[in-house]
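Structure ticket #2291
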Amino acid sequence: MTAPDAPILIQLEGVTRRFALPQGELTVLDDLTFTAREGEFIAIVGPSGAGKSTLLRLLNGLIRPSSGRILYKNVEQSGINLGTAMVFQDFALLPWLTVAQNVELGLEPRNPDRRARRAKAARYIQKVGLEGYEEAYPRELSGGMKQRVGLARALAVEPEVLLMDEPFSSVDVLTSINLRDELIDLWSDRDFPVNTILMVTHKIEEAIELADRILVLSARPGRLAGDIPVDLPRPRRKTDPRFPEYVDRVFSLLA
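Resolution: structure written out below.
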């Protein structure tokens, strides 16, 4: 568990996000207020349409709040947050680029030295277990391997905050289990650049297995229905007698 006095990295204050549609304005998120501290792994759960992915895009700076504000290290966010990186549900790889080129993508605007970019990309390709596949194209990879490329691409920019949008939902069950275990191993590694993770998932058990805290969003418009600390030792297993208690608690808030 993260120390309660750990520095606050992210702070949301009354954040609301609306979208203009032909039939009128749609409120997706409403009056969200919470903080994320250094060293936390936070899972975000909620029904479909609750604004979970929208929340990650707000944190990344891809979109801005309609009202309220987001602070990063006590400074209000006004554009893309370079302290964050995103891992997408659908991999978001460019099919005409190799594994190495996909991983280097985020480094190009930050580092003009191509040799240094290639070396950093190779380091994170090795960290996610894809050494030897640098010149492969996405069509030659399994779903799990594609997600590892997406993770390596996010890690290569060495963000403080990793944002993950249902990262294991597009792979089979066994691959999902392996990827979750690998993510925790990476996060425990002292060389891992990320110290805070916010992950969207629709699986309650996955949230309990991975996270220090679970933020529960209500049905649209997404409001904060619960903020649940998870006090279970790692590695977590469903056989832990307290595990079902957390499942029931989250489910009751969703229901």
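Closing remark: The chain has seven helices and ten strands.
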